[in-house]
Amino acid sequence: MSRKDLTLLTDFYELTMMQGYYKEGQNETVVFDVFFRNNPSDSGYSICAGLAQVIEYIKNLNFTYEDVDYLRSLGIFSEDFLQYLGGFHFTGDIYAIPEGTVIFPKEPILKVVAPIMEAQLVETTILNILNHQCLIATKASRVVFAAGGDSIMEFGLRRAQGPDAGLYGARAAIIGGCAGTSNVLAGRMFDVPVLGTHAHSWIMSFKDEYTAFKTYAELYPDNCTLLVDTYDTLKSGVPNAIRVFRELRDSGVPLKKYGIRLDSGDLAYLSKKARKMLDAAGFPDAGITASNDLDEYLLHDLKQQNAAITSWGVGTNLITSKDCPSFGGVYKLAAIQNEAGEFVPKIKLSENTEKITNPGNKTIYRIYEKDTGKIKADLICFADEKFDAEKDLMIFDPVSTWKKTKLVGGTYTMKEILVPVFKNGECVYQSPSVMEIAEFCKAEKDTLWEETKRLFYPHRVYVDLSDRLYEVKKSLLDQMSME
Amino acid sequence: MSRKDLTLLTDFYELTMMQGYYKEGQNETVVFDVFFRNNPSDSGYSICAGLAQVIEYIKNLNFTYEDVDYLRSLGIFSEDFLQYLGGFHFTGDIYAIPEGTVIFPKEPILKVVAPIMEAQLVETTILNILNHQCLIATKASRVVFAAGGDSIMEFGLRRAQGPDAGLYGARAAIIGGCAGTSNVLAGRMFDVPVLGTHAHSWIMSFKDEYTAFKTYAELYPDNCTLLVDTYDTLKSGVPNAIRVFRELRDSGVPLKKYGIRLDSGDLAYLSKKARKMLDAAGFPDAGITASNDLDEYLLHDLKQQNAAITSWGVGTNLITSKDCPSFGGVYKLAAIQNEAGEFVPKIKLSENTEKITNPGNKTIYRIYEKDTGKIKADLICFADEKFDAEKDLMIFDPVSTWKKTKLVGGTYTMKEILVPVFKNGECVYQSPSVMEIAEFCKAEKDTLWEETKRLFYPHRVYVDLSDRLYEVKKSLLDQMSME
């Protein structure tokens, strides 16, 4: 399967800035951080996803003759710069948080350390990929949480924002906890389960509903979920489905995975009625699948009303993250290397304190409570800082700095969560398979307190700064306000 | 540029149904309609977009060996069916409304007339493409409307839901009326204007703001928009920009397209203050570009408050259609051809009257008021119905059937808006260029009444049924309720 060439998938200003740096002979190594300011949908956490596609993008980064010809045709780029682009490849370092990890606002989830011309070019596509997949993985995780133990199927391809949104959205949804997708290409590309039975058109193309059900059941006796709402769910659909199940059973066909699907009407009411009818007919193990504009909020309510639904198909609201369709990740300059090879921290001011960036070449340590394995806080610090978890540790809230937390030595453990992905332009990271990432993500969610997983008004996880980082940030701010 | 192979980009149930039809030897020609039930964002109209990509998809539809191997590996498809897929291509007819046309709920915007196995396969991707591009073109059209005559630039790539959402979203945004995009790949693929200058990182990578501005202005004197909000917009950014403009002017460099860009803070307040400072310094023709979480609602308010902004960059809220991120187009069976070659109308019931489909092999006539050229109504009718605009015409509201409108012969004109795109699997339609479509779309919007273009509570355009279609629908409904 051929990949689209994404090298030109960038904002035009990245190229005008690149030419500017080129002309100025200015190509010092810099540090850019990708981070986000808020969890989508007021979630207590987000899920990291998209790194495998970022890696693929960086590996394939090169300007073809046609790309260069197109840029030449714009009449704004000089021949020497175009020639430089013709030989361009990425030579820098990238660090990232592995896919499936639970992540929190303000921490760098990916860090580029590269000559500024290279670091600038890759901004837009890295953000595009991570913003999309983190968004959908997070949404999927919330939907899966709302469903308790029931399985969730991703059904949104037809409403996704273009082919890639369907494809990589399905990938992210599986990472976030969905059991499968209806998207066949996603199944093939990412080796994930594909699922689905039939549509209303199947029913309508036969002379009656019974014949449509019967034909389908005889074709697919091993996995037979009949869509019962084409004409009248309780008067026609469920009775016809029961008739077909009975005929199969009477003729000796073993019923394995079978049941009905509801796709309209009130799912709580209809599922409870249908459950009674199926049970009374001797089919207590028939599943009831439901779909129809579901999201985590409706799912949460339907579960509370004891809807008799065993599995759920979620489409539009998951694949577009309807209530919050963008993730808001940004890419900010954090440091510039000087001639001595030191990273000089840079800061961007803002009238809004929350929007002031964290300066310097940084990393993140995740701090766990030793007893429970639950996350106590994330600590952002300089990349060269070392800690001893046997010693007490004081951490600061970066905005409300009076909020200090003292961690007592020996009661906590620490893990660096930003790992090397590219070194001098070479990929040094092997992405796990999507199903492995999904498994890892499930374990990651076990490190969250229940209070953080709650759908509404969740408890926020602390993302704090190290002593040293806090002091540097403070002095940079003081310095700027003096100017 | 290589296209991804989209043949497997389909819902799994399309393939299980296809195999079902294959096994049953059931492959009669059917009619499927694509239509939508509501305009996004409570708009009074939508914009049709995406047909060129649907055409490309249908033309390239074929199962590779690898596709077939993958399907075989799922253990649900038989060898004879897999062999059939190996030789599959589309042999049917497709009719569609040309891109850039204004469209309204409930009318078929695309119609597939094909053997049911083929018509079923293409459902998901056709919906995916049209749903996405119609959504973004409609959103763009609203944003452009809110801006009055000011130009709108599409800046959303980094927040789009994956690469395609950025790429085809930019295409749709241009169709909807945007003047250009920041997306370089979209510029190359669709031959549309690309725009952009520099980011905060450019400013931060120089020793001070003045030096950053000066360097940029000397590099790009012909198109020099300086981003003024990195440190302090009115105290530092605008004065430094003025200093640079003055130095350029004093050194004899002609200032052509130049100005400032605001990317934070209150855009009404800051733009008016900046305008005064620029005017006082002798730069009345300096443009003021603004960006920062804009949408049609904020733009509408900023215009009302006389914000002194001359062009606008719109990102996240446009590229995701944030307040309404899905279009809701559906694909419904409308007729099945019988052995005599006649299309037998089919209908899908629903507990909700609004959701009952319109049966039959249909087309749409757009009715214009002769005097003004404005749209009077759209008329859905059978494909073989003919009308004489010199005669009186009675049309029915399909839900509130007591709402009848009598059009007096000679006061109106009619145009069939569904045109042939594929005939017997051959493409018979040549897509215009994106800029031609954008031009056409502008003219299309002139056929709308001002009341329909309004952002809030717009006047709805009537989409009515012909006498004959209304009678057939009624008798089908009567017939079903008798069963």
UniProtKB/TrEMBL annotation, chains A, B:
Swiss-Prot/TrEMBL catalytic activity: 5-phospho-alpha-D-ribose 1-diphosphate + nicotinate + ATP + H2O = nicotinate beta-D-ribonucleotide + ADP + phosphate + diphosphate
Any idea which UniProt keywords this protein has? Glycosyltransferase, Ligase, Phosphoprotein, Pyridine nucleotide biosynthesis, Transferase
As for PTM, the annotation reads: Transiently phosphorylated on a His residue during the reaction cycle. Phosphorylation strongly increases the affinity for substrates and increases the rate of nicotinate D-ribonucleotide production. Dephosphorylation regenerates the low-affinity form of the enzyme, leading to product release.
Pathway it works in: Cofactor biosynthesis; NAD(+) biosynthesis; nicotinate D-ribonucleotide from nicotinate: step 1/1
Enzyme Commission (EC) number: 6.3.4.21
Q: Does the keyword Transferase apply?
A: yes
* Boundaries of every Nicotinate phosphoribosyltransferase C-terminal domain copy: 361-473
According to the UniProt record, what class of enzyme is this? ligase
What is the name listed in the Swiss-Prot or TrEMBL entry for this protein? Nicotinate phosphoribosyltransferase
